[in-house]
């Protein structure tokens, strides 16, 4: 009976270790860890909880927007003062006027964006444009409702016909994977975080992010870019 030599034992140990590595860390797992190349590698949930592979939109030009449906009317309390009052506080006045201006801007963003998104969708939905709307409650709690309430507001009050998806986070530790990808592809001014509702990402027919637009950029201002992409 022959005994295994040291070299034989070493070879067997090496082979065993190689097999262990192969089964513990298969090639598929390495590939899964690779960063996504396009949005087509993501699956999201629609407003009713159904899975939607974004590969369904292969060959479409996409405008991806984080949306909100609530808004707040300014009170203009700071403007209600007597010009002759000796108690007029200029710092209090400036602070409240600033608040009112911001509030008015918020109101305008919600209504104008939905109005113009609807215009774009009506003009180009049969020409390879799709608008994907993702509700988010991270900015002044302007999207606090559940899925049914959001769908009612967006589809009934704002008459939106484009797809509405499940409410997500676009910043922070719970950021949706899709939005991590979008921000990594097109960072923002100074920081990559989404600044407010109605930040817009333009995605070409190959699933690549080609441009990012600020909340204050109206949808109709990017109509020409959409036409070029289509």
Note down, in words, how this protein is organized:
Keywords: Membrane, Oxidoreductase, Peroxidase, Transmembrane, Transmembrane helix. This is Glutathione peroxidase. GO terms for molecular function: phospholipid-hydroperoxide glutathione peroxidase activity. It is a single chain. By secondary structure, this protein is an alpha+beta fold. The chain has 2 domains: 33 residues, no CATH class; 195 residues, Glutaredoxin (3-Layer(aba) Sandwich), CATH 3.40.30. Helix content is 38%, strand content 13%. It is built from 6 helices and 6 strands, in the order H-H-E-E-E-H-E-H-H-E-E-H. The protein has a 4-stranded mixed beta sheet with strand order 4-3-5-6, with helices on one face. A hairpin with a 5-residue loop joins strand 1 and strand 2. The radius of gyration is 26 Å and the shape is globular. About 15% of the residues have low confidence.
SSE arrangement:
Layout: H1 6-24, H2 27-32, E1 43-45, E2 51-53, E3 61-67, H3 90-124, E4 129-135, H4 147-157, H5 177-185, E5 200-203, E6 209-213, H6 223-229
Parallel strand pairs: 3-4
Antiparallel strand pairs: 1-2, 3-5, 5-6
Quick one: biggest sheet?
4 strands, mixed
DSSP strand tally: 6
CATH class of the largest domain: Alpha Beta
Strand order of the largest sheet: 4-3-5-6
Sequence stretches where pLDDT stays below 50 over 5 or more residues:
73-106
Q: How many alpha or pi helices? A: 6
CATH topology of the largest domain: Glutaredoxin
Helical amount: 25-40%
Structural class, by secondary structure, is alpha+beta
Globally, the shape reads globular
Order of helices and strands: HHEEEHEHHEEH
| CATH architecture descriptor name of the largest domain | 3-Layer(aba) Sandwich
Gyration radius, in Å: 26 Å
CA-CA gap between termini: 77 Å
Percent strand equals: 5-15%
Total of domains = 2
Q: Can you give the mean pLDDT?
A: 80
Within CATH, the superfamily of the largest domain carries the name Glutaredoxin
């Amino acid at each position: 009976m022959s005994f295994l030599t040291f070299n034989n034992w070493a070879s067997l140990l090496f082979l065993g270790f190689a097999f262990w590595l192969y089964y513990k860390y298969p090639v598929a797992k390495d590939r899964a860890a690779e960063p996504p190349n396009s949005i087509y590698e993501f699956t999201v949930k629609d407003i009713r909880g159904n899975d939607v592979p974004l590969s369904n939109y292969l060959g479409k030009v996409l405008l991806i927007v984080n949306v909100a449906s609530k808004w707040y009317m300014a009170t203009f309390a700071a403007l209600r003062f007597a010009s002759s009052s000796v108690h007029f506080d200029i710092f209090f006045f400036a602070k409240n006027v600033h608040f009112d201006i911001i509030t008015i801007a918020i109101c305008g963003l919600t209504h104008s964006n939905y109005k113009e998104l609807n215009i774009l969708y009506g003009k180009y939905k049969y020409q390879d444009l799709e608008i994907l709307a993702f509700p988010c409650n991270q900015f002044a709690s302007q999207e606090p409702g559940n899925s049914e309430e959001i769908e009612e507001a967006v589809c009934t009050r704002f008459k939106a016909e484009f797809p509405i998806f499940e409410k997500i986070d676009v910043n922070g530790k719970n950021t949706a994977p899709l939005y991590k990808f979008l921000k990594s592809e097109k960072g923002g001014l100074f920081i990559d975080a989404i600044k407010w509702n109605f930040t817009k990402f333009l995605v070409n027919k190959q699933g690549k992010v080609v441009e990012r637009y600020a909340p204050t950029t109206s949808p109709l201002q990017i109509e020409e870019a959409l036409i070029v992409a289509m």
